[in-house]
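Q: Could you fold this chain for me?
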Amino acid sequence: MYVTHTATQLRQALALLPPPPVSEVKPRNRRIPLSRSHHVRGWHPIWPGHGSVGFESRLESRFLTVIAQVAPGLTVQSQPVTITYELQGRDRRYTPDFLVHLPTVPDPLKRLGFGLETYVEIKPLERARQLDEEWMLRLASLRTLGLPVTMVTDVDIAQLAMEAHA
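A: Sure. Below is the predicted structure, expressed as structure tokens.
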């Protein structure tokens, strides 16, 4: 388990972890399932003409609201790719929450590890602090696709919201 105190330390640990071997990449292979319980799922408008983006939690919805304020003109894909990687001799699959395309990278997003195109995983900080090595390897596997990978937490989203309204 990776014990970290901040989301920044978690992102630094992720950047240092070597990715596992990747055997397959399928674009837009996973769809967000219907909620059959108390989970929040839905579609979020980004800006007129963009189309709505699927989300699986309130935190993902909040991220979409805030990032659209911080980076006008962006595009976002939900569940953009499913990657198959090998771990301990078994094939595992992973689908990140979003792929974000930015016209330019604002400083608040640079601090979170964003590039012009970035795979993003959204997690509450308390849950992110408890991620095991397998979860970290899931995220690291995306780096084999040549784009930055970052994890954004509820604390990061709150900070971005404050900066967007400053």
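A (continued): The chain is about 30% helix and 30% strand.
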